[in-house]
């Protein structure tokens, strides 16, 4: 019994030490209006801001709000997103970023009256993939799993059933910035709320395979 108590105490202390608080994260392109309430991030997205590099449009922008922490190794990250999208290309979601030339942003994007599941993968130049939703949604969950040199991206309407929307390459064995981003490239900004942001460490895949061979 005493041993069980000790084990539970260790587990609890590990949970506390690894607990994530939004207050400890930091801004890249801090917006003028934002707050943290009940462990949720609320912001008014900076007008005329975005992340994009070169392809198709011929310009590069790197000036939208991004609230992040830095993680190494492999992990799962997810968040619930609620936005008051107004203008074309208003968007909100997760971003995993190495630097200004290498990042993945994924979430929901409002384009010409249609809500889209959107992912932009940038390695030197950007690409863009979308899945149009049949109707507007009050909120959505986005989840990304970094394993080896790939990031798998999922969406859910209830935080129970997740559907894959993209698998994208990302250099492994390098720290990345992980967090919540939003942009309003064509608009005057909008309100967005991020809830239940969580990053879960995953044991290194190659190390697990090595251990299994011993």
Summarize, please.
The chain is mainly beta. It is 11% helix and 54% strand. It is globular, with a radius of gyration of 18 Å.
What characteristics describe this protein?
single chain; 214 residues; mainly beta; Jelly Rolls; 2 helices; disordered N terminus
Fold and architecture overview:
- This protein has 214 residues and is mostly beta strands.
- The chain has a single domain (22-203), classed as Jelly Rolls (Sandwich).
- It is 11% helix and 54% strand.
- It has two helices and 16 strands.
- The protein has helices at residues 2-17, 205-212, and strands spanning 26-28, 33-37, 40-44, 51-53, 60-62, 66-71, 74-83, 90-99, 102-111, 114-123, 125-132, 140-147, 150-156, 163-169, 176-183, 191-202.
- The strands form three sheets. The protein has a seven-stranded antiparallel β-sheet with strand order 1-6-15-8-9-10-11, with no helix packed on it. The protein has a seven-stranded antiparallel β-sheet with strand order 2-3-16-7-12-13-14, with no helix packed on it. The chain has a two-stranded antiparallel ribbon with strand order 4-5.
- It is globular and about 60 Å long.
- The relative contact order is 0.24.
Low-confidence stretches: 1-19
Number of domains: 1
- From the alpha carbons, calculate the radius of gyration and give it in angstroms: 18 Å
Largest sheet: 7 strands, antiparallel
Cα shape: globular
Give the helices and strands as they follow along the chain: HEEEEEEEEEEEEEEEEH
Distance between the termini: 33 Å
Side by side, the strands of the main sheet go: 1-6-15-8-9-10-11
Strand content: over 45%
The CATH architecture would be Sandwich
Q: Approximately how much helix is present in the residues?
A: 10-25%
How many strand segments? 16
CATH class value: Mainly Beta
Quaternary state of this entry equals: single chain
**Mean residue pLDDT:** 92
The secondary-structure class comes to mainly beta
Number of helices: 2
Could you please say which CATH topology applies here? Jelly Rolls
């Amino acid at each position: 019994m005493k041993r069980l108590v000790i084990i539970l105490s260790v587990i609890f202390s590990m949970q506390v030490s690894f607990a994530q608080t939004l207050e400890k994260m930091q801004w890249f392109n801090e917006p003028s209006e934002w707050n943290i309430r009940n462990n949720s991030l609320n912001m008014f997205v900076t007008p005329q801001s975005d992340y994009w590099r070169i392809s198709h449009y011929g310009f590069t922008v790197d000036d939208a709000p991004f609230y992040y922490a830095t993680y190494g190794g492999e992990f799962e990250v997810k968040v619930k997103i609620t936005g008051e999208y107004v203008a074309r290309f208003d968007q909100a979601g997760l971003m995993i970023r190495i630097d200004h030339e290498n990042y993945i942003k994924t979430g929901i994007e409002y384009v010409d009256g249609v809500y889209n599941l959107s992912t932009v993968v940038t390695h030197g130049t950007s690409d863009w993939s979308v899945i149009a939703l049949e109707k507007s949604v009050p909120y959505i969950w986005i989840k990304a799993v970094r394993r080896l040199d790939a990031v798998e991206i999922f969406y859910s309407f209830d935080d129970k059933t997740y559907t894959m929307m993209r698998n994208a390459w990302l250099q492994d064995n390098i720290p990345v910035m992980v967090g919540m981003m939003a942009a309003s490239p064509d608009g005057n900004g909008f309100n967005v709320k991020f809830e239940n942001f969580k990053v879960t460490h995953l044991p290194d895949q190659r190390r697990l395979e090595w251990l299994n061979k011993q």
